[in-house]
Amino acid sequence: MWMTAPLVEVTSVSKTFTRKAAAAGGNTTFKALDNVSFVMTKPERVALIGPSGSGKSTLLRSISGLHTIDKGKGAVSVMGRVVQKNGSLASDVRATRSRMGMIAQQFNLVGRLSLFTNAALGFLGKVSGLRGFLGMWTADEKQAVMRALDHVGVAQFAGQRANTLSGGQQQRGAIARAIVQGAQIVLADEPVASLDPVTARKVMKLLVNLNEADGVGVIVTLHQVDYAKLYCDRILALKEGKVVYDGPASGLDDETLKNIYGAEFEDAFWGEAKA
Ligand SMILES: Nc1ncnc2c1ncn2[C@@H]1O[C@H](COP(=O)(O)OP(=O)(O)OP(=O)(O)O)[C@@H](O)[C@H]1O
């Protein structure tokens, strides 16, 4: 079951939000995802692109079960385990989530804890809560954490409080935590949006390495189409909550991009994403 099931299966997912009106009453509903389907059968690097507000983060959060999708036929499964269906989270969603590494744009790490402890938090799904809470890691666990920090190039900062690290060092720490966790899927929500281009490229390369060397499936939302094309092999484009492109990065031509981004087309490129 674990070996043959798709890594990620999103079937007919819709997500409606209620928008509160400024004045009393008159709330409106808004469909952020509209019948989205998408399957990742083998570990790939999938870039989620699309204009601001097109539903990228909502899709990522629906995959991890942080958003509950609309009732109906919609369903999300990860590695053969149901995350949610018909508007309800599965009762064992925490266990499934422990196989997913999450990387956000900011606030990835617990600021007052050391980088080492933050990376070691990747063990939390596997060790008793109390042992993790008290930081009672075994020698093997400590070694694994240091290996992961070394792998992403931040071992020298292990003892430093996370909130004193640079943005790039924090993102590397989040990747190390996913490695410690043994994540089979990494969901990264705009992981390079607040980084300078040089650091952004390094972080993207670490995600590529995680996929190529460790067979981890990566789904990453990106504002920069250049990065999506350069570092990902598949692109899923959303527009107004609908999938408007799902295919190889090489197949995404300017005409399709103009249709996706409209007036935002020129802004979707940084022009700085070099290998
Ligand atoms: N909790 C919420 N309540 C109400 N509306 C929401 C909520 N979360 C998201 N939305 C709306 O859903 C739409 C999709 O938002 P989402 O954050 O998924 O877009 P995005 O493509 O990730 O955008 P960006 O590129 O700007 O981050 C937006 O119109 C947003 O305002």
Automatic annotation (TrEMBL):
<dbReference type="InterPro" id="IPR003439">
    <property type="entry name" value="ABC_transporter-like_ATP-bd"/>
</dbReference>
<feature type="domain" description="ABC transporter">
    <location>
        <begin position="8"/>
        <end position="265"/>
    </location>
</feature>
<dbReference type="InterPro" id="IPR003593">
    <property type="entry name" value="AAA+_ATPase"/>
</dbReference>
<dbReference type="InterPro" id="IPR050086">
    <property type="entry name" value="MetN_ABC_transporter-like"/>
</dbReference>
<dbReference type="GO" id="GO:0005524">
    <property type="term" value="F:ATP binding"/>
</dbReference>
<keyword id="KW-1278">Translocase</keyword>
<keyword id="KW-0813">Transport</keyword>
<dbReference type="GO" id="GO:0015416">
    <property type="term" value="F:ABC-type phosphonate transporter activity"/>
</dbReference>
<keyword id="KW-0378">Hydrolase</keyword>
<keyword id="KW-0067">ATP-binding</keyword>
<keyword id="KW-0472">Membrane</keyword>
<keyword id="KW-0547">Nucleotide-binding</keyword>
<dbReference type="GO" id="GO:0016887">
    <property type="term" value="F:ATP hydrolysis activity"/>
</dbReference>
<dbReference type="InterPro" id="IPR012693">
    <property type="entry name" value="ABC_transpr_PhnC"/>
</dbReference>
<keyword id="KW-1003">Cell membrane</keyword>
<dbReference type="Pfam" id="PF00005">
    <property type="entry name" value="ABC_tran"/>
</dbReference>
<protein>
    <submittedName>
        <fullName>Phosphonate ABC transporter, ATP-binding protein</fullName>
        <ecNumber>3.6.3.28</ecNumber>
    </submittedName>
</protein>
<dbReference type="InterPro" id="IPR027417">
    <property type="entry name" value="P-loop_NTPase"/>
</dbReference>
<dbReference type="GO" id="GO:0016020">
    <property type="term" value="C:membrane"/>
</dbReference>
